[in-house]
Design brief:
Blueprint: H1 26-54, H2 64-71, H3 74-102, H4 106-133
Helix pairs in contact: 1-3, 3-4
Length: 142
């Protein structure tokens, strides 16, 4: 039988911290995602800046034809898609954390998170649509 003094005092206190509700371990995985996506974003962004601004003639060669040639390669489409998705989800996760820290009311938190989800989804769908459906032939003069 359990003795009275073996129980933690926090179990008897009405304001004792409770187990968080929601998806188990979500905050842990969100924290891990921020760390790993941050490292990946640094590498992707530095590579992007190097290719676009320094390599060859740098920014002077960037025009529609350059982008059309670049996006003709699946490698660069995947590179830019990874940059878009990681940046948006990383930023949205950071904003979700800020909303959680500074929203006092659950209703405010709900509406701000809903707006954030809609905006993130819209930008991801639009950016993905542009990357997937890009047609280089529209730039050719007929």
């Amino acid at each position: 039988m359990e003795k009275e003094h073996d129980r933690p005092a926090s179990l008897d206190h009405p304001r004792a911290p409770r187990r968080p509700r929601g998806i188990p371990y979500f905050e842990k995985y969100a924290w891990l995602f921020m760390r790993f996506s941050g490292v990946a974003l640094v590498l992707l962004a530095l590579g992007h800046l190097f290719i676009m601004l320094i390599w060859d003639d740098g920014v002077y060669r960037v025009d529609f034809n350059f982008i059309a040639q670049r996006w003709a390669s699946p490698f660069w489409q995947i590179w830019d898609m990874a940059l878009l998705w990681l940046a948006m989800v990383h930023g949205a996760n950071g904003m979700r954390t800020i909303i959680g820290d500074y929203s006092r009311k659950n209703v405010t938190k709900f509406y701000l998170n809903s707006l954030l989800l809609l905006a993130t989804g819209f930008i991801l769908v639009l950016g993905t649509y542009v990357l997937v459906t890009f047609d280089a032939s529209i730039g050719v003069n007929q």
